[in-house]
Structures are given as structure tokens and as C-alpha cells.
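B., you asked whether I could sanity-check this one before it goes into the benchmark set. Here's the sequence:
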Amino acid sequence: MTEKEKMLSGQLYDASDSELAALRKTAHKLCKDYNDLYEDETEAREEILRKLLGGKLPEWLSLQGPIQFDYGVFTTFGKGCYANFNLTVLDCCPVKIGNNVFFGPNCTIATPVHPMKAAQRNPHPNENGNIVCDEYAKPVIIGDSCWIASNVVICAGVTIGEGCVIGAGSVVTRDIPPNSFAAGNPCRVIKQIDN
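And here's what the prediction gave me:
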């Protein structure tokens, strides 16, 4: 099993693997190119997003920029999504964003999890004598029609149900049920959203 396969399946993997390093390097360059363009350079921006996100773009995807993705190709957006300034997505495991999801400025989705034991977390030699950095990751899912307000951090393994509003400055460490207003650090459900 390759380190990429281990990573995407949530197993402990070597983040310094050459294939993963090459994928990150490509994504980081594409993000830099995207961020250097003006908003009205829509065709050039769309072409970069196609490369970054691994193919066809959904309808009405708008990423304000600057953006930063670890890999890009492991993130999917539904149609009608919008992200304000400074969206960061560490997509070491799949990130699935539904339709009509809005992000305020300075939001982060972080799928990586580092081992609690320092000996596993710190760089160390593997059986071949190469220095490795072990970590693992858990997927993130955001349902349709969610609003993720400013400065929200969504942690590894979280599912946010459809129709949710996540309050500004929240750190989402556990699943949020559909149609909830949730906020805080750690983020908790404040109330259900109904008509």
C-alpha cells in the first residue's frame, strides 16, 4: 500500500513521502498562481481551479482568494459554493463540501491528526534510515446549504449536517446535526433552525 493510499484511508502514513510531497508542491504552486490573479481574470482563475481540484468545476463555484490547499485534488465542492478571503483546506483525507455552502473569511478545514506520543509525532528514522514524519487524517463532510461564518476551524473527522450555521470563531471538533445553529470553542449546538 502506498503512503497516499494509507493517507486517504485514514491510516498512519509518512507525510514526507516523495509522491505526496510532489502533489503538495503542485497544489501550492497552483494556489500561488491563483492568488496572484485579479478577480476579473475569471478564465485564468477557473483553469487553475480545474487543475487544483482535479477536473471539472461545479456550477457557480466562487473562491475569493487568497486560497490555500494542501492537495486540492482530494476536495470536492458542490454547485453554488462561495468562500471569502483566506480559505485553507488541509485535505490529507477527502473533504466533501455540499451544494450552496458559504464560507466567511479566514476559515480552515483541517483533516490531519498528529500522534499524541511525541516519539511518533516527531521526525524519526524509518527502517531504511530515512527521516519520516508520521501522521494520519480523517475526512470532513459539510452538507448542503451550510453557512460557515468567519474564522471557523473545522477539525478532522467532522460531519456538519445540511442547513447548518456555524457561528464566527467556532472550533468544530465533533459532528453537528442537520439544521443546527452551532457556535463556540469547542463548537456546540445552540438551537435547531426551523421555519
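One thing to flag: The first strand starts at residue 13 and ends at 14. Otherwise nothing jumped out at me.
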